[in-house]
Amino acid sequence: MGENISNEMKMSIKEFKIDLLKNGDDPGALIPLLQSAQDSYGYVPEKVINYISEFAGLPAAEIYGVVTFYSQFRLKPLGKYIVKVCEGTACHVNGAKTIVDMLLNELGIGVGETSDDGMFSLLSVACLGCCSLAPVMMINEETFGSLTSDKVRKVLKKYRQK
Question: Which residue ranges form the domains of the chain, and what is each CATH number?
């Protein structure tokens, strides 16, 4: 991590290190330690896996096995803009598949991936709770409903220009 680390992130990293010192030798604390690392860094970096390995006395391969088994953990950071596309029932029957296909094509990434430039991450979710606006997507905290391919293109263009 470079010099551009925010004070908030520095505090999170400090909290992770405290968690590691408190629980590092407890094999049952692996998942809470990984959660703390992800909260601190936004993902679980390789250096953190190595730290946990040293403190907990667990092989790094075993820790990687846990990280890759549970979908809550990420080995890469999310993009600046997190696109969540709803694939719940209401969205599904109103064309969510078309929206997902369109996003895959426009962003050039698969679901669960982040663009090479670090701008966008694409996630599929079961429900965004906006069924009356189906199909729906969110970018970070902003919701977009009654989507069409044209609307999605316009929204992405707006975010690319930010």
Answer: 7-69 (no CATH), 81-160 (3.40.30.10)
Gyration radius from the chain CA atoms: 19
Q: How far apart are CA 6 and CA 136, in angstroms?
A: 32
In the numeric block, the tokens 């040293």 are attached to 54
In the predicted model, residues of the chain with pLDDT beneath 50 are 1-11
Contacts of 66 (CB under 8 A, 6+ apart): 30, 31, 34, 73
Nearest CA-CA partner of 68 in 89, 88, 44, 50: 44
Three-class SS of residue 98?
A: helix
CA dihedral 75, 81, 82, 85 (to 10 degrees): -140
CA–CA separation, 85 and 102 (whole Å): 11
- pLDDT value, residue 159: 96
Distances (CA, A) of 149 to 80, 89, 142, 152: 22, 19, 18, 5
Q: Is the pTM of this model over 0.90?
A: no
The DSSP symbol for 118 reads S
The confidence score (pLDDT) of residue 3 equals 40
